[in-house]
Structure formats: structure tokens, C-alpha cells
Amino acid sequence: MALIELNGIEKVYRTKEIETTALENINLTVDKGEFVSVMGPSGCGKSTLLNIIGLLDKPTQGTVRLLDTNCNTLGDTALSHFRNANIGFVFQSFHLIPSLNVAANIELPLTYRSGISAAERRRRVDEVLERLDMTHRKKHLPSQLSGGQCQRVAIARAIVGQPSIVLADEPTGNLDSTMGAEVMDLLHDLNRQDGITIVMVTHNEAQAQQTDRIVRFFDGRIIS
Amino acid sequence: MKNKILQIIYDLRTQPVIGWVTIIGTALSIFLIMVVVMMQQVTVLSFAPETHRDRMLYGIYIHVEGEGNTGSAGMCYSLAKKLYDNLDGVEEISYNSSWLDAVDAKGTTGKSYTVQVRNTDEGFWRLFDFKLLDGRYYDAEEVAADRNIAVISEKTARNLFGDNEVIGQHFLLDHNDYEVIGVVADVSMFATMAFGEVFTPKIIKTWDDGSLWGNVTASMLIKPGVDFEYIRNQVKGRYASLDGELAAENRKTVYHESPFDQETVASGVGGSNITPDPSSGRRTRYIIYAILLIVPAINLSSMLHSRLRRRVNEIGIRRAFGCTRKRIIKEILSESFIITAIGGFIGLVAAILFALFYGGLYSDFGTSSVNPSLSMLIRTQTFLFALGACFILNIISAAVPAWHASRLNPVEAINTK
User: Fold this and answer.
1) Is the Cα torsion angle B303, B308, B309, B311 positive or negative in sign?
2) Could you tell me which chain B residue has the CA closest to the CA of A88?
3) Interface of B with A in 296-315 (CB under 8 A)
4) ipTM
5) How far is B412 from chain A (nearest CA, A)?
6) Residue A201 and residue A51 in contact, taking contact as beta carbons nearer than 8 Å
7) Whole-number average pLDDT of chain B
8) What total of structural domains would you count in chain A?
9) Range of A173's domain?
10) Would you call B325 an interface residue with chain A, using a CB distance cutoff of 8 Å?
11) pTM of this prediction?
């Protein structure tokens, strides 16, 4: 069953002087439970693709269907709700909120979801913290954590809302190899055990090889 | 809420100058507003001895036009009675001098003091809630007899007689001998219609020379639920009767919506020959409030812009995880409100302290001997007004930055360093 369907996606950035095509005629289908890596040189449109799948950006042309919903028709508020319910993000630079401690950072997506009590939010956060072996860091601020720990917290934040899709943009890019391997293990666990569909942008061929499928990009087009 | 407070603490740590300038700026703004508000409140809200200001009406002036003895000024005693005695719906009435006489007084201590003297009838003591510390008040017979007796304030008693027994003592008031029959607790100068340091029963003879003119105010407590217009209509009828008497002299009265309520009296009435318009005072106050709110709000807005510039990435992250634009606005406004409320609280406390120690500066009597008390300044209305001012200040200063933040492109925001 296709969870992500991109048809004829084009993304063109226009300024007064110049028009840059970031994505050109992208057709991509990702099935439920798949772990797909997206590879390609810098500036080839990988992150733009991830932003479009993540409904953070709109294509200039083409349709985005996620979980059988035509997302082109959704307004800004509906898109926010859709992201909150179905998509988790993991970024290369972690992007934890520096003023919030680990637990509050992880709790963030749940605070934007209606119908979840504070007690339930805390329970889910504790559950994820335990799963990621980060309970002892619960009260720490991001500045008190190592890069690997920050990325674990970022992954915890991405999955605490039990999304169907996790989008990871170079999740090991800022980590050393040991930490990177740990993060990859974690993503594989989430994919296998929870059936979460993962689309990961990476420059690391070895890590890409561990995934179900590699989509290769060049100059805004899928080449394989 | 907890996270918002953590965010504010974090902001104060990471951007201390902007954070503290915001709080101090807010405090200063609220301080200025609350000084104006409290000084206005003490002129209209009830406090002892003027405990029923919301039910008080005052007949102060008479305006007569025509040939001969015309003009506008205070009333004589008999005219005040003619216009205001036995009105239906009046619970209590007193005739007392409108303006105080500042005269010299000398007691057993031998030192002369300038005291503020108010001439009153016996109803004055029923109308206003004075606290009698010693002795008694004068009665109707003593008022009619025009006796040289006085009720004096505690401070005056101390000045004139030191620590000695006061009741029955004699003192010189404007070179005339008076006997002290009662001592009352000092009252604030902000109780403009009841304030005095020496009260004498010399209202009738002092202010009744056969003309229309004098210095007598008819102070009335209106029964609960009675419409002030009902009272005014009766007074208007009395004016018409007076016109009948004055017609022979080719004179007539000009009615100026008398008697006046507390707000009108507090706004200064404006003059004996014009119809007072308290709404113009209200408008002026609102303009002052608006200026005091808008000017700092513009500065605070730019401060908030600066603070939010550092949080663009965070706003992008929040948007990615499902925060709607509306929620971004709400979160920024509520965070900003907490800061405004902290500043507002500091400003309010500063304003109360200022009013407590320097309140005399605002008094009609030009001295600082009796400043407003805490109970006069700390009212539910004071807090509600301060809260409202904070809320408006917050909306004016934070709305635009919050709206801008909510319109940020999430992708660009996330990628902002």
C-alpha cells in the first residue's frame, strides 16, 4: 500500500532575475513500512523533496498524496494538523529547542494535538525516553547533551506522536561514526518494530545500502 | 505555562539586555498609567469618610441672570435649603461650606498653626463616616445657636494641645475663642467634600447675609436605587419656583444640571456659570492613557521583534511539528503577556508606593500632610485596570511581531541559523 505518492512534482524558485528549477517531474511512491534513502550531490533537490513530502513546502506543480489524502487541497491549518498526526522530522542539526529540557522537547508535538491530557503526554514521553535509554537525561537541557544524545532526543520527538512517516534529513551528518551507527540502528528499529515508513536523505552510501531502497537524485531529477 | 516561564527565563539569560529593558519599559509604562489611574480613582471611589460616593450628589452653585444682582457663585444657606431641602429620594443631607478657610489657630502649646476650617451643620456628621476619637459632635441646637465650638482633627489636636486632654479645652481660631467638643481621626485631603482640620457649626450666620450668594454646598446621600435624574428634576422644579420669586426683579436662574455627582465634582465642574461636562475629562484621561500605552508599546514591539529574531529557527521547528499559525500567535502573545504582567506588577507596586509617599502632590489643598492610604489605593478596580492596561500594552506591542512570526516560511525558518 502506497503511503507516499508524488506525481509530476516540480519545484521552481523564482526571483525577479532568475528562475531555478529545484525539482523536475518527480514521480515517487513509497509503500507503508518502507525505509527509503535519498542520495545525490549537494543542491540536487533532496531536501526540497523532503520538505515537500513533509508538507513544509508546496510544489509548483504536481500532486502530493500522503496516506491516501490529496495534500494539495489542504489549507495551512489542516496541513499543520496533518503533519502533527502523521509525520515526524529528524534534522541533521537536531533542532532541539534550547530553552526546553529533554522531556519538554520530546513532548512538543503532543502539545499541539488536541484530546491528549497532560498525564498521557507525560506517560508517552517517559515511554519513549525509556525506549531510547534517555530517562536519566530527562531534565537536562540540550546544551548539556552530546551530539548523539541530541539526535536521540530529536528521534524521540519525531516518534512520540506515533506518526506513520518519519522524514530524516541527514540524521547522522553531524555525528561521529559510532554515534551515527547508533542512530541508524535506532531508525532501523523504528522501521522494523513499529512499521514506521522512513525517508532519509543521506550522503553516506553505506548507510543508504542498509535501507530497503535508494532513490538517486541529480539536478532535481530522479535518476534511479 | 511551565514551558512558557522556562522560555522567559531562558530569554532573560541569553538576551539579558533586551529582556530586562522590556520588563523595565513595561514597568515604567504601567507605573505612569497607574499613577494617573490611582489619582483619578481616589477622586471618585468611596473611602471613609466619603463612603458612599456612588450615591452622593452636591448642589454647589447658583447662576442668576437679569438686571442688577446677577452672576454665578456659591449659594447662601437659605437659598441652598430652598433648593435642596426635603427632596424625595434623599436619605440624608448636610449644608456645609464649599471652600475651606485657611485661618490661624493657637492652642495651649502656644504655637500658631494654619488650619483648614469647614463650617457644617449637624447633618454633616451623619452624612460622612468620620471616626470620632473623643468627645462628641455638635447638634442642631448648637448649629442654630451659632456656638463657638469645634470638632478638630487628631493632628490639629496634637498641634494645638500636645499630649494633653483636648475635650473642653479652648483655642483661638482667627482670634476668636472656641471650645473643643470632639476629636475625629484625620481624613485624607482626597476626601475633598468632607476634608477639614477644624469643623465649626457656624454655617447659618456665616453664610446667610440676605443675598443669594454664599459658600454653602448641599451634600446629599441619595437612597439606594433612586435615579439621580429624579433628584435633578425636582431641583429643576425648585429652580422654576425661584424664577417666580426673581421675576419681580427681572432676574432668572440658569440651571446647570445641578446637583452634581462625584465624577462631575472630581472633574472640577469647570465653573459656576457652565454646565459641567465630565465626559470631556474622561476623554482627556483616555487620550493620556492611550499615549502612555502606545508610545512604550512601539518600543516594546521592536524589543519583541529582536527577541523573536533569535527564535526564528524554533518557530520553524514548532511549525514542522504541527503548530498552527494561530497557535504561534497565541504562544507569543501569552509569553509576552507574562513578561508584560511581571513588568506591570513592578510598575503597579512602584505606582502605589509613589502615590503613598507623594500623593499629596496631587491634592487640591497643596500640602502633603495627609497622603492617600493603602486602602484607598489598593482596590479591585486598581488591579483590574492594571491588568487591562498590561493586556492592551501586550496586544499593541506583541501583535505585529507575533503575526510576522506566524507568517514565517517553515523551511526558511528551520534553516535560519
Assistant:
1) positive
2) B321
3) 313-314
4) 0.94
5) 10
6) no
7) 87
8) 1
9) 32-61+71-222
10) yes
11) 0.71
